[in-house]
Structures are given as structure tokens and as C-alpha cells.
Design a protein that fits this description.
- By secondary structure, the chain is an all-alpha fold.
- The protein contains one helix and no strands.
- The chain is rod-shaped, with a radius of gyration of 25 Å.
- The chain starts with a helix and ends in a 26-residue tail after the last helix.
Length: 48
């Protein structure tokens, strides 16, 4: 019985790790962590 429980726990852990690896945002796949875009900002110039 302990063998079956250990085997099912190992399979569940491997499945969770595979699911997390497949959904990672580190692969530049078009979503999640993307490079920031620099937008020019006008600054008000005050003459003093």
C-alpha cells in the first residue's frame, strides 16, 4: 500500500512540475514578462 501511495505522489509531483514548466513566462512567448517600452515624456521648462 505504501508503494502505491509513494508512486502516486511521485507522479503527481512530476505532473505539477511539468505543468508549471509549461506555463512559465520566461520563454518570450508573447505574454507575461515582456521588455519595457520607453515612451518620451515632455518636461516643462521653466525660465527663472
Amino acid at each position: 500500500m505504501a508503494d502505491l501511495l509513494l508512486l502516486s505522489a511521485a507522479i503527481a509531483l512530476a505532473g505539477v512540475l511539468a505543468w508549471l514548466a509549461a506555463n512559465s513566462d520566461d520563454d518570450n512567448g508573447g505574454g507575461g514578462l515582456m521588455q519595457p517600452v520607453l515612451v518620451p515624456v515632455r518636461s516643462a521648462r521653466y525660465r527663472g
